[in-house]
Amino acid sequence: MSADTSGQRSLLGSVRPYLEKESLAAFFLGVSSGFPYAMIGATLTTRLAQDGIDKKTVTAFTLAFLVYNLKVFWAWVVDGVRLPIVGRMGQRVSWMVLSGVLVIAAVFNLALVEPSADIGATVLAAILVGIAGATFDIVIDAYRIETLKPYQLGTGSGMSQYGWRIGSAGAGALALIVAARTGWGAAYMACALFALPAMLTALVLGEPARHREPAARKGVSEVIGAIIGPFGEFFRRNGAWLVLLFILVHKVGDTLANLTFRLLFNDLGFTNDEIAIWDVGVGFWAYLIGIFVGGIVYARIGLKHSVLLALVLMAVSNLSFAALAAAGHSNLGMAAAIGFENAASGYGGVVVVAYFSALCDLRYTAAQYALISASASVVGRFATGATAGALIESMGYVNFYVLTTVLALPGVALFWWMGRSGLVDAAMGTAGEQTG
Known about the structure:
Elements: H1 2-19, H2 21-39, H3 42-50, H4 55-58, H5 62-70, H6 75-80, H7 91-112, H8 119-147, H9 153-182, H10 184-191, H11 196-205, H12 219-235, H13 240-249, H14 252-258, H15 261-267, H16 272-301, H17 303-327, H18 331-358, H19 365-384, H20 388-421, H21 423-426
Helix pairs in contact: 2-8, 2-9, 2-11, 5-8, 7-8, 7-10, 7-11, 8-19, 9-10, 9-16, 9-18, 13-19, 13-20, 14-19, 14-20, 16-17, 16-18, 17-18, 17-20
């Protein structure tokens, strides 16, 4: 009986961090973060297809996604510029309200354009949604990191990812339902409501308890300091360049593999129904489970061990697709490979995002996290995408997935060495420091 009681207490202790107000706030922030991406992603693609737009023209809309990688160039504004009038609400709250309003306005603008009549205006409207959405992301990430206590970074990152998934999928589904009944204009306007959770969260909770204002400067030095300060502080840390190298390379193998899963399924003869059941269905639930486990493991074994485990799992998960490629058409094999991959990605997403969050200095959270998040995806997007198909043709799927596992090993080895040498702790920002 005492064992049962102990087990119940252990379970409650694992779940309780997800119910704390800071973690719940991270969930609502994630909901709002996910919806602009959906508006210029699959939702806009569907709208353009239904309007009879040529497929080649649709590729122009990738510019809207590129904006998310460029946000580092204006993230310093969110840290260093105090807004007039609304700035009285606080630096983070005022920027949350402003960026939320900008997202709503941009989505309304996209709702009012007619792709079949003016494709150029539609491209511009989509890019504006990307700019507003990326700015919203900058503020949301900063607010989340500064609201969460250090021990909540794992569960908070998990809740944020839950919210992102729900916001993205929910907005996409709502758009399709409303568009089928009243048209795409009304659909986009309805989806603009997804900006409200983050705005209301900031208004209710107020300024994050851990937010720190940068040192005051005057005139031109204030502007220069706001731009240079966040990056200068980061690169003055012991081991900062190695940390940046880790950020750049840690997902190269994983990104390269992820680009090719649907190609593998097609070549193995899986039907659309099988892909929907095993890839989308099993993958979705495995990812959610991985997120939940990630928050618990992060709290139990700490940052360094949980991140190292995530890197190993994400590397090894690529081997499951080598096994699937060798086995051929197998529903059980696909379910196992997809389940392992998504569970590892969900778990890894939580603990790695928590680590990246902990790297931020609380005076420059917006700018530094924008630098980190942009760096984490830039190699995968610009270097690996063009090589995957050629590699598969030259070496076959089995050897290709073995190669992606090998490419993940430098990131594993580098983080292990950083942990053993003390550089993980030496390069940590104030967001990861325990406070009384």
